[in-house]
Specification:
alpha+beta; Uridine Diphospho-n-acetylenolpyruvylglucosamine Reductase, domain 3; 12 strands; binds flavin-adenine dinucleotide; Enolase-like, domain 1
């Protein structure tokens, strides 16, 4: 069981940052994950009074506050229209609506879980995380950073550039609402492709390539799926995950190219 003695609802990011420099304190999102752990802290720091629960859109980008819920991503019309419904697709299988109303974007991205649908989805886009101390960091760089217990920054928001990328997302689950055993997001801009493969069961990784050197989508998909490693866990073997990835990457690419999707 997660335990903490004190709860502080901060009135500024500066206050939150100062408080969370102590090893005994922790910034929290929706606490959906934390409540399942055995972590004990002296203080939890709540960001919910800072107005970070908004998704803002302008001509250049979407800006998603760290305290936005996964449900907000799922139903946001602007985000889903611009990116072909991938935010609905990457969230709708996560547990249930009540849970998605509590789990936050900040907690989901900062924790960089290996099974994360959200990280897999964002990685295929031109996305950045804004860290209070570390500034703007491309999501690709942030995702690759190891998760350290002593890392004490605060994720303020996620920014996604409207660069014209078309995207599609799919995940495979052994049963509805379970953790994914594979998650794939593909995005296309001109002749450039961005394929993110997560739940391998390792953290999502991005494969980028141009289509100039290939004759067929099948070849490109195979090369993208082969570029990352796959492991075994209770949900599936690495070999099974790789076989799924080859097919799913191809299907997403065919969909984005407006081709009929073959089996
Ligand atoms: C039963 C269950 C099933 C799940 N299934 C899936 C799934 O299928 N797919 C999927 O993608 N996810 C899944 N999740 C994860 C979930 O979607 C969230 O990612 C998770 O709950 C974390 O979000 P939270 O708001 O609850 O974060 P919390 O539990 O509050 O925090 C998680 C971590 O992030 C840190 N943190 C939180 N906010 C910030 C911030 N702004 N800045 C810095 N650090 C911060 C905390 O210190 C903590 O270390 C599941 C979770 C549960 C409990």
């Amino acid at each position: 069981m997660f335990r903490a003695d004190d709860y502080v609802k901060v009135t500024s990011l500066a206050e939150a940052y100062e408080l969370c420099q102590k090893r005994s304190s922790l910034v929290v999102g929706g606490m959906v994950w934390l409540k399942m752990t055995n972590v004990t802290k002296r203080m939890v720091i709540d960001l919910s009074g800072l107005g970070l629960d908004q998704i803002e859109e302008n001509e250049e980008e979407f800006s998603i506050g760290a305290m936005c819920s996964l449900r907000q991503l799922e139903i946001h019309e602007g985000l889903n229209t611009y990116f072909g419904g991938i935010f609905k697709e990457c969230t709708r299988h996560i547990v249930g609506v009540q849970m998605r109303n509590c789990a936050t974007v900040g907690g989901s991205v900062y924790a960089r879980f290996g099974f994360s649908d959200i990280l897999t989805c964002l990685l295929a886009l031109d996305a950045y995380v804004e860290l209070y101390h570390g500034g703007m960091v491309p999501i690709k760089e942030f995702a690759a950073r190891p998760v350290h217990r002593d890392d004490r920054d605060i994720l303020v928001r996620v920014v996604i550039k409207k660069d014209g990328r078309k995207a599609a997302y799919i995940s495979q689950r052994n049963s509805s609402t379970d953790f994914p055993l594979l998650a794939v997001c593909a995005a296309n801009l001109g002749n450039q492709w961005f394929v993110s493969i997560g739940a391998r069961p390792a953290k999502a990784a991005l494969v980028e390539f141009t289509e100039d050197n290939f004759d067929t989508i099948k070849e490109m998909a195979k090369q993208a799926a082969d570029a990352v490693s796959y492991g075994d866990n209770t949900r599936g073997s690495g070999q099974y995950r790789h076989s799924l990835a080859v097919v799913y990457v191809r299907r997403l690419m065919e969909r984005l190219k407006g081709r009929s999707v073959s089996r």
